Amino acid sequence: MKADLHCHSNVSDGLLPPAEVALRAADRGVELLALTDHDDVAGLAEARAAAEGRGLSFLDGSEISVSWKDDACFHVVGLGIDPAHAGLAEGLAAIRKGRDGRAQRIAGELDRIGIHGAYEGAARHAGKASIISRAHFARFLVEQRIAPDFKGVFDHYLAKGKPGYVAHEWASVEEALGWSGDSGGVGVLAHPLRYRVSREALRTFLGEFKERGGRGIEVACGGHSAEEVSECARLARHFGLKASVASDFHAPGESYADLGMAPAMPDDLVPIWHDLI
After folding, report:
1. Sheet holding 72-79: strands in order across?
2. pLDDT tens, 201-254?
């Protein structure tokens, strides 16, 4: 099955409306899609209707921001969730509320180094999105020619240790997995090799993630090399996690990969969707 179980719409930090994401996925041959906007479920009904109209199987999802030791941040994708579940809705609403304060602090740090109007610029790029994310700041900085592209923005301004970075307290891993599980879904660690932590710290986190009910890991993620797929597959085997496939698509020409473009995963791994469809 050609699956893509991690992508974003303009409800969070993608550029396309939820229905357009689903239609683009169908056009690109995706057979099973999950929309996983950051800390929100508002686009799921629209995306599901568009997907099902094209005969595309659809899973409700959300990418939940998680804090872990020493200011590390991980992302847990809840798949197969019930977007109407009260505990999930309350938890995600609390995270979104905190995001605006974080955005104000990012803008303040950028202002200190001479980049003015960043909050207003990011908010303009966010449009009707429920959050202002680092991606919206990145679009503003690229637009202002302060950096040539997204990578340049993060490398020089928004990543940990850079002048526009601010620490933030997200949900705990217990909360993220609890919200996902209580709402009928499963928790999957997103893009495991993209975090700015050591491999030892990643393995420690994965041990805790599995112990607390985590069920899957993105083995084949947009932008992964063959070597990276192999490394993630080894982690899946070691921790007894099921495998997910994800483009992490945000926008045409802006993302690591377009919808349906994640690399293939090894045949011996059990796909996470076996638990969900």
Report:
1. 3-4, 32-35, 57-68, 72-79, 186-189, 216-221, 242-246
2. 999 999 999 999 999 999 999 889 999 999 999 999 999 999 999 999 999 988
Residues 6+ apart with CB under 8 A from 200: none
According to the model, what pLDDT value does residue 80 have? 98
Judge whether 163 lies within some domain: no
Based on the fold, state whether residues 42 and 99 are members of the same structural domain. Answer: no
Quick one: angle between helices 134-143 and 118-126, nearest 10? 110
Can you give the residue range of the structural domain that contains 33? 3-92+172-275
Residue 126 CA to residue 10 CA, distance in Å, equals 8
CA atoms within 13 A on the CB side of 174: 0
